[in-house]
Amino acid sequence: MSEPSQFGIGDGTPEAVAYRLMLDVMRVENRTMSSGALAGAHTPADRHYLLNTYHECLMAVRGKRIAASNGSNRSAAAAA
């Protein structure tokens, strides 16, 4: 039996997969959770970005993400 993570979320849960996907998206989009000098060449992610990106990743993992025609689900979500 594997040890539970510090957040009590197992490795195979949709939430854990969505979190790892969010980290991958952030890496591709040059975003970081660090701020200021620690961010370096990356853009610090604000609360709005983090929550929206995690939500989009969670919906994708659950098979419920609606792809926007322009390739950006965030702009479609903001219009709703």
In short:
This protein has helices spanning 14-28, 47-61, 73-79; strands at residues 31-32, 43-44. With 80 residues, it is mainly α.
Features:
two-stranded parallel ribbon; disordered C terminus; 3 helices; mainly alpha; 80 residues
Can you tell me about this structure?
This protein has 80 residues and is mainly α. The protein has one domain. The chain contains 3 helices and 2 strands; from the N terminus they run αββαα. The protein has helices at residues 14-28, 47-61, 73-79, and strands at 31-32, 43-44. The chain has a two-stranded parallel sheet with strand order 1-2. α1 crosses α2. Residues 75-80 have low confidence and may be disordered.
> In angstroms, what is the radius of gyration?
14 Å
What order do the helices and strands follow? HEEHH
Which range does the strand content fall in? 5-15%
Q: Which stretches are poorly predicted, pLDDT < 50 over at least 5 residues?
A: 75-80
Tertiary shape = globular
How does the SSE layout of this entry go?
Elements: H1 14-28, E1 31-32, E2 43-44, H2 47-61, H3 73-79
Parallel strand pairs: 1-2
Helix pairs in contact: 1-2
